[in-house]
Amino acid sequence: MGRKFFVGGNWKCNGTSDEVKKIVSTLNAAEVPSEEVVEVVVSPPFVFLPLVKGLLRADFSVAAQNCWVRKGGAFTGEISAEMLVNLGIPWVIVGHSERRLILNEANEFVGDKVAYALSQGLKVIACVGETLEQRESGSTMEVVAAQTKAIAEKVSNWDHVVIAYEPVWAIGTGKVATPAQAQEVHFELRKWLAANVNPAVAESTRIIYGGSVNGANCKELASQPDVDGFLVGGASLKPEFVDIIKSAETNKAA
Ligand code: PEP
Fold it and tell me: Could you identify the atom of ligand 1 that is nearest to the CA of residue 235?
């Protein structure tokens, strides 16, 4: 079975309740390919999750942007996987580079988070990606392989994992990876999964690209054989997110 195209919208730390309602009403009115062709997941800040879940069309779903690494308890300011499950939130983003770099989340910590979230029944968008310095020094694959290895060491079932390859130099910079650059890393990541997990997981796991994707560049990226969708930041707050969802039609699996 082919990998279903996946489009995630990461709203990051943006929005008021009125702005959030406006984005949702744009999405609800949009004509997009069917659920058989594309899976759409939007990720508002924690405080807006119930509002968005309540208003959003039934064929789209929601993700939290993070969760705590273990069972909840005395961890001030954190949100546990159990709480997300309790609210009926199906997805969580883990290991976003903004958390890895600004909040010093290490590879092992991210691996533990992915495993714990999965153990509680959440589906996970696990982010990996290199910095500009790492790319320029030729260590891109070494970096993303180490990040993926830390997850693979803790995870035995990959059915509910989507890997988001997000080069740090492309996030929020307007400097998108070329389709060839994205394809190269996705291909290598899939090869890594085949060799280090197993070929079936490599074949079925969706590897999506993130980093300055917009309505204008999405089609060419979507046509790459190993690009199974997108994680979108800035453009997910704008009506062009609908065009990005529609790029599922240019993907080889559609
Ligand atoms: C992101 O934060 O996951 C992201 C890809 O951001 P942007 O699309 O704004 O580069």
Answer: 8
